[in-house]
Amino acid sequence: MLSVAVVEGINDHELGDLISFAMHNLDVVCGLALQPAFVSGRFDVKDRHHLSVLDVAHLISRQTRGKIDASDFWPVSSSHPLCYGSTFLSGAGDDYEPLTRHISEDAYRQMFDPASPQGAVFKDIAAKSRPEAEPPGGLPILIMEYMDAWTMDLDRASQCNLAVTQLDGRSIPFCIYHLSDSKGRRLYPHGGRTTNAARS
């Protein structure tokens, strides 16, 4: 699995090449996760535009000359629709097509399996649509947009399906758990966990 933080002005122009690399190396690449960088204080992204799922999808469309369109990325039903965009490129090398062009919204709703990992939703749907055939070859792509203090949306956070469980049993939405200011001061220091030194 290739997992890449996408930063405006740093590597956002390399998405098309990254997809091409992955499609030509499917023997060792099983998926591509693209994560637009968010301001957490862990590295410098000051004065850079925060990229959304749709921003990244449009960049991919331009860099693949429309071979993959922004509309080929669909929300993953297990979370808020603005948090994830996904597709599955069926094929290999330069010969591929997004699976989402060949399924309807109704078929998606019927075949969606909440047990599918987020990045494998459409690969699992492709396998279900032809159960007698070999598992489909291709590349699942998942764009994951995490929120920071500048983009936090509590409605989205309340629908989060990616949570961190605390030692006291509380479940905290991922983006809130990692929330910090621009200097890296966290809302939940040390992830809300007590260090061994503090316990003794």
What does this structure look like?
With 200 residues, this protein is an alpha/beta fold. It has 2 domains: 2-144, no CATH class; 154-199, no CATH class. Helices cover 24% and strands 18% of the residues. It has helices at 15-23, 53-63, 105-111, 121-129, 154-158, 174-177, 196-199; strands at residues 2-6, 32-36, 84-92, 95-98, 138-144, 163-165, 171-173. The strands form 2 sheets. The protein has a 5-stranded mixed sheet, sandwiched between helices. A hairpin with a 2-residue loop joins strand 3 (84-92) and strand 4 (95-98). The longest helix has 11 residues, at 53-63.
Provide key terms for this protein.
single chain; 200 residues; alpha/beta; 2 domains; 5-stranded mixed sheet; two-stranded antiparallel sheet; 7 helices
